[in-house]
Structure prediction request, 135 residues.
Amino acid sequence: MTYARLKKMASGLLVGDNKLPKDPEEVLALLEMAYIYITDKCQVLNLQTLDKSADVQRLGRGNYVVRMPDLPVKDTDELDIDTELGPVVASLISSYISVKKTAVHQTRADEGIRNYNAKVDELIESLPKLQGEES
Prediction:
């Protein structure tokens, strides 16, 4: 998902409520808040690294660390998270801005995180089985 698409999605979620800020730095700050929340709550596959010099947010599984996602520079940049988490980020940003539906947006984000983590756990648990089948 591109940064522009994320902003459109968040704007759509906020229809009839507060609007997404016009200041690009404010939107980036909200995205950074959402990224921090996601890296604390998710086993984001593309953010796990063995590179201890990365901007480490926390320890991951095994020897891995979870790095902070890079913030986009322009609207055409792809978000530095797994595609499935784009709507979660949009919901988090909306929860930070909304007056009328804060809990709805937060609940949607948390549900998306739970679903994502369940899929990742299932994938990781199946890896030894998959590797064993190849032998």
Strands lie at 48-49, 56-59, 65-67. The chain has one domain: 3-134. Residues 35 and 51 are 19 Å apart (CA to CA).
